[in-house]
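Progress report, Aim 2. The chain analyzed during this reporting quarter is listed below.
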Amino acid sequence: MGVFAWRNLLTRPMRTLLALIGLSIPILGVLGLFSLSDGLRNMVGDTLSQIEGVMVMSENSPSPVASSMTTDVVAKIRAIPGVRAAAPEVWRLAPDVEGRGLTSRLIGGVMTKSWNSMLDQPVVTGQDIAAHAKLRSAVYPRSLKTKGEGRFLNEGDVGKPNVVISRKLAKQFGAGPGEPKKVGDRLRISDVDCTIVGLYDTGSMLLDGVIVMDIGMARKLLGMAPETVSAVYVEADTPPGYEAIREAIEKAEPTVTARSMNEVQSSFNVMMSEVDKVLMLVVSLALAVGVVGIVNTMLMSTTERFVEFGVLRTLGWSQADVLRLVTTESACLGLLAGVVGCLLAWAGATVANQFLGGGIRLGVTPGSMALGLGLSVATGVLGGFYPAWKAARMAPMEAIRLGSR
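Predicted structure tokens for the chain:
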């Protein structure tokens, strides 16, 4: 039956090819969208795995950049039992860097068609150097030691315009292609010439856009009051105590939000689950178009083959045999479209990964390929069911008579 069905498809190559294209494109879309979703999940997971502590911000703040508190909070947090270290920070979007602000980056990105120039907005973070030196899980010093160069900030940098930046920012604000900023070079932020003392590389686009400097220098540069802090990074005496510490902080200071990285990961997964539902809705519309294409192809095929079906019925084929034949043809068409869609998705992800950075990696997994093949076969069978039913219910002589017209 399978060989017979396959030969029938090959006798009409152009129609089969058009139906194949019509269904393989939605399958490509399914795998591409879910590959991007998985890539974002993995990137965020890898980023959060580098952060072990609890981030304390003002209540309902989406990120430290939008948060604002006073230094009184720091003293209250340090007094909570189980807190090993509490390091205050200030966070804000960077002012003009090397004469380039957000507007100029947007215009430059449009002119050069560079998404990196359009979307990469550096952030300035000022750290209490003495407090951060007590941390065990600080991301940037650890990254600098393993993949960077130069040194991290120390107490000699207090009040001085010394900064630590990522290799990504060094390339972005370098003199030109192949000429990134180096340790010892100057980086002009607003109207202040800063000295680069270290380069880090976390491998995450969420972390590699940060310019690190002394908290006092950052307040002066950003025009913030001396008693202002954006966030407090908290470490517990023992890692299992982070959930208890988070609850204790919010109880002691109701105006703040304390977030452990597990909580952030859970929130992100919930958000991505909602995104996946929207993606499935979009994909369902695309698959519906594929079903219509299969129905059209199989209807035309069965209409042209009424004589064939009538002869087969007179030779002893049952209605179930005809139904099975046409359904097998549509299933074979769906399977072939699924294979083509999977190959295109794999090739597209491989090419896209050559241009993506910041920790995002697209990948078509065996599970997603199985999903794509299953959807394509199901779509093929669904699209071929009505034409198969129409062909199977006709009496043998009626089919021969209609097909002979």
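The CA atoms of residues 324 and 388 lie 8 Å apart. The first helix runs from residue 2 to 10. These observations will guide the mutagenesis work planned for the next reporting period.
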